[in-house]
Design a protein that fits this description.
Elements: E1 2-6, H1 10-17, E2 21-26, E3 43-47, H2 63-75, E4 82-86, H3 92-104, H4 110-120, H5 128-137, H6 143-151, E5 163-165, H7 169-175
Parallel strand pairs: 1-4, 2-3, 2-4
Antiparallel strand pairs: 1-5
């Protein structure tokens, strides 16, 4: 499973879901140290601001940041959960979770994976710059970008709640209501 959380829920999430890997997406001023319960080498710390367009006054998500994220995801053995968080658990972390799903499920439709993120986290509003970069790096030919755009805005919230995502689409299909 992949879990998505706001920063305020990280300590509780580590205690309850016992992840082996942690991704922190925070601006440089609020980046955290590796929390107890996580091995330092399994904590990816990406210092980026939550912006959808490059801005020279802030740290924009870059191709290097997203490539590091993709490499970290590919190095995860999936034996225990991965926890992904940002400040509010709404934008950067949900983008990272969507990128993880696309990385781990190369042959599955991006729109289905984006809808899974939204279904599990109604507040999810994936960072479009991160998604656009990942789309290019993963060779998805605009499909990741289009899938996130098609979602529209998530439910309005100051902070998201902890939610989980099955990492394989067949788990998603089994959860769909019968038509």
């Amino acid at each position: 499973m992949i879990y998505v959380s706001p920063l305020s829920g990280v300590v509780d999430a580590i205690r309850t879901v016992r992840p082996s890997h942690l991704v922190s997406l925070l601006d440089p001023e609020t980046m955290i140290d590796t929390p107890d319960g996580i091995v330092r080498e399994r904590h990816l710390r990406l210092c980026v601001n939550d912006i959808a367009e490059p801005n020279e006054m802030l740290v924009s998500p870059s191709a290097a940041h997203v490539a590091d994220l993709i490499a970290f995801i590919r190095g995860w053995d999936q034996k225990r959960p991965m926890l992904v968080h940002c400040w509010a658990g709404i934008s950067r972390s949900t983008a990272a979770a969507f990128i993880a799903l696309c990385t781990l499920n190369e042959n599955h439709p991006e729109d289905m994976l984006a809808r899974l993120v939204r279904r599990r986290g109604a507040h999810a509003h994936p960072n479009r710059l991160m998604v656009r970069i990942a789309d290019e790096l993963l060779g998805r030919e605009g499909r990741m970008r289009d899938a996130v755009e098609a979602l529209g805005p998530g439910r309005a919230a100051w902070e998201g709640e902890l939610f989980s995502l099955p990492i394989h689409p067949e788990e998603f299909v089994r959860e769909q209501p019968a038509s």
